From TrEMBL:
The gene is ubiA. Its EC number is 2.5.1.141. GO terms for cellular component: plasma membrane. It comes from Thermocladium modestius. GO terms for biological process: heme O biosynthetic process. This is Protoheme IX farnesyltransferase.
Length: 290
């Protein structure tokens, strides 16, 4: 394998993107397994999830290297910048993907493996390779990779049921608001690259109302799930401030539709999903005291 800098190899895995998917898998396992947590299984989910999602991110980088070169936001990524060769990137992608999926199957079993594979396919192939340059539905279809992440963790602890499916849609609903608010910030880049994301295809007012409304819906949905399936005071202490802040920022972006407002919304979307998962895990733990 050609030599490469460690920083470039890590950047190829999109660590700022995949950590939330790995967290979703870990959260799915903990929510399903509490109070019978297997520490080794938790480590196995984290390692297999990190490798497989890192492989899918590397595939995304490979398949979009020409588009990344056209966009100011992504032009300095390893492939368009030339700091890593295409050959080395392919090797890294194949090794990460194979290691993650094989370890997932060996350590976690068939069902978690199926969901890990589905997540890889939805992000790398269906979203990146097939849909992203063709239709604004790219996010709405490719977003099922988020469902798959949570379900892979859940399946490592318990059979998939209605609760698991509904919880996985918390990740699914979160994805479009998260991505489209980023697109609003860099809309010129996406137009220049010819990527048909919804915010660059519709009027600005339509994009504002769609993204803000979806972010509010996503936040309320998370709170609804918490009330129905957890409903524990310690979790409310964590979750409610972020719910209030998320709704406030979304409403503010409707009244003051500037790029800065949407950038604030984008930055807020990651904490609300993180806090939802943490609140659910803490809330369930508190229901089973030692």
């Amino acid at each position: 394998m050609e030599s490469m800098k460690l920083g470039d190899a890590i950047e190829l895995m999109k660590p700022r993107v995949i950590w939330l998917l790995v967290l979703s898998a870990i959260g799915g396992y903990l929510i399903a397994a509490i109070p019978k947590i297997n520490a080794l299984r938790l480590v196995e989910i984290a390692i297999a999830g990190l490798l497989s999602t890192g492989g899918s991110a590397a595939a995304n980088m490979l398949f979009e290297k020409d588009v990344d070169a056209l966009m100011t936001r992504t032009a300095k990524r390893p492939l368009p910048a030339g700091s890593i060769s295409v050959k080395a990137a392919w090797v890294e992608m194949i090794v990460l993907t194979a290691a993650g999926l094989v370890l997932g199957y060996i350590w976690l079993g068939l069902m978690p493996f199926i969901f890990m594979l589905a997540g890889w396919v939805f992000y790398s192939i269906i979203y990146t390779l097939i849909l992203k340059r063709r239709t604004w539905l790219n996010i709405l279809i490719g977003g099922f990779a988020g469902n798959a992440a949570l379900l892979s963790g859940w399946a490592a602890a318990a059979p998939i049921n209605l609760e698991a499916m509904l919880l996985s849609f918390a990740v699914y609903l979160w994805i479009p608001a998260h991505i489209w608010s980023l697109v609003m910030r860099y809309s010129d880049d996406y137009r220049k690259a010819g990527i048909p994301m919804l915010p660059v295809l519709v009027r600005r007012s339509t994009a504002i109302s769609t993204i803000s409304g979806l972010n509010i819906l996503s936040t309320i949905y998370m709170l609804f799930l918490y009330v129905i399936y957890v409903n524990s005071i310690p979790g409310y202490i964590i979750l409610l401030p972020f719910v209030a802040m998320s709704i406030y920022i979304s409403a503010k972006s409707l009244l003051n539709p500037t790029d800065d407002a949407f950038w604030t919304m984008f930055k807020m979307t990651s904490p609300i999903l993180t806090m939802f998962i943490l609140a659910a895990v803490l809330g369930l733990f508190m229901q089973f005291p030692p």
